[in-house]
From TrEMBL:
Residues 11-134 form the Mycothiol-dependent maleylpyruvate isomerase metal-binding domain. The keyword Isomerase applies. InterPro entries: DinB/YfiT-like, Maleyloyr_isom, MDMPI_C-term_domain, MDMPI_metal-binding. It holds the Pfam family MDMPI_C. Signal peptide: none annotated. It comes from Streptosporangium oxazolinicum. One of its GO terms (molecular function) is isomerase activity. Residues 147-241 form the MDMPI C-terminal domain. Transmembrane segments: none annotated. It comes from the Bacteria. This is Maleylpyruvate isomerase family mycothiol-dependent enzyme. Keywords: Isomerase.
Length: 250
């Protein structure tokens, strides 16, 4: 698997922002987004562009505390038809802000890494997943670069223990059972449920239950709940997989 740098994450995030803006441009922004219940394309765009601006403000200030995103003026256009262009602006200012700071510089984050580098990776995958949401809502083909998708699966597993707003995550424990996520492209992870926590590692080994998919892009959509693992081959204890997916939500 590719080992990413801060600059590569920032550049990939910019490319994904531009791509999402292109997907949305000229579309009916009232189209429902079924993978984000209760949202339409306008709210999806407003959320994603707002998160970019929130992250930029915190990175520029190297803040030691969380900024109140709801209290920030995001400069959202009055007409939802302008949301795609507004979203696309992030392809310029987001990497500029990220690259203006040392990736090791300490700052607030909600994940395990309290440094700037957390945000370049997080903004990449925040955008990828919501770009997929838009494409699924519009019924257009979903494609994700394999290196981006593999890093996205691993990022999901890295940050999941820190999702304090979902108390169900604390229940992801067990007696050594394993959940294996495998792609035909050669990427694979095994999640182990210990009595006090879960942990993951890169591995091509099968598990108590194993999901076998063609690509890391498939697995990324599975872990983020954008596709059902039933779309792929499942070997072993399907009940364990269902239990995991019911609790492992960000």
């Amino acid at each position: 698997m590719k080992e990413w740098t801060h600059a590569e994450h920032a550049a990939a995030a910019a490319a994904e922002i531009a791509r999402m803006a292109d997907v949305l441009r000229g579309r009916d922004m009232s189209v429902p987004v079924l993978t984000c219940p209760g949202w339409d394309l306008a709210r999806l765009a407003a959320h994603t562009g707002g998160v970019h601006r929130w992250a930029v403000a915190m990175v520029r200030d190297l803040t030691e505390r969380r900024y109140d995103r709801d209290g920030m003026d995001m400069g959202l256009p009055a007409d939802p038809g302008g949301y795609p262009a507004w979203l696309g602006e992030g392809a310029g200012f987001l990497p500029e802000a990220l690259l203006s700071r040392d990736p090791q510089a300490p700052m607030w984050s909600w994940g395990g890494e309290r440094r700037v580098g957390f945000w370049s990776r997080r903004m990449l995958h925040e955008t990828v997943v919501h770009r997929v949401d838009a494409e699924l809502a519009l019924g257009v083909p979903v494609t994700i670069d394999e290196h981006v998708a593999a890093d996205g699966v691993e990022e999901f597993l890295d940050i999941l223990p820190y999702v304090r707003w979902n108390p169900d995550v604390a229940e992801l424990r067990g007696g050594g059972e394993t959940i294996s996520l495998q792609a035909d492209t050669g990427a694979g992870w095994v999640i182990t449920l210990d009595p006090d926590r879960f942990h993951h590692r890169r591995s091509l080994q099968p598990g108590t239950v194993t999901v076998l998919a063609a690509t890391s892009a498939d697995l990324l959509q599975v872990v983020w709940g954008r596709r059902s693992p039933d779309d792929y081959a499942i070997e072993g204890d399907g009940g364990l997989l269902g239990w995991w997916r019911g609790l492992a939500r960000i």
